[in-house]
Amino acid sequence: MPCLRLLALTLTAIALVPSAAHLLEMPAKMGLDREEYFLVQGIYAGWSWFAVPILGAIVANLALFVGERRRERAAARMALVAAVLVALSLAIFFLWVFPGNQATANWTTATDDWQSLRRRWEYGHAGGAILVFAAFLATALATTWPGRDRRSRRGDAP
Questions:
Q1: Which bin fits 70, alpha (ψ -120 to 50), beta or left (φ > 0)?
Q2: pTM to 2 decimals?
């Protein structure tokens, strides 16, 4: 279980990296004109690889949930919450962010409604970042739940 706990925490932390980056750069990007915005959006080429740790975080937190169910129910619930929150961030991505990527060919082709697409793209990422941050906190709780140590010292849990 220690390796699974570390894996879940690590993958959830890595999933937080692109989300936090989007959230932190949003205020500066919202003031850019069309040409500047489309130019800046080019920095995200290749970021689709972040799908690997994002999906990994969901799987690892679900595995942690299953592994902790009988040992530490509260920790198991936190792992399940983390998996659900990361999955919800993906739902937000596909509902609000991905349509903008498709409509603009990954921000290489301007459309008449590019500002509306930008708002959905930026606020979608911001919402996802908040969910992934909450997931990281839930995973941190699941992996460090205080009751686990007391029971382990008494011999109640492996």
A1: alpha
A2: 0.89
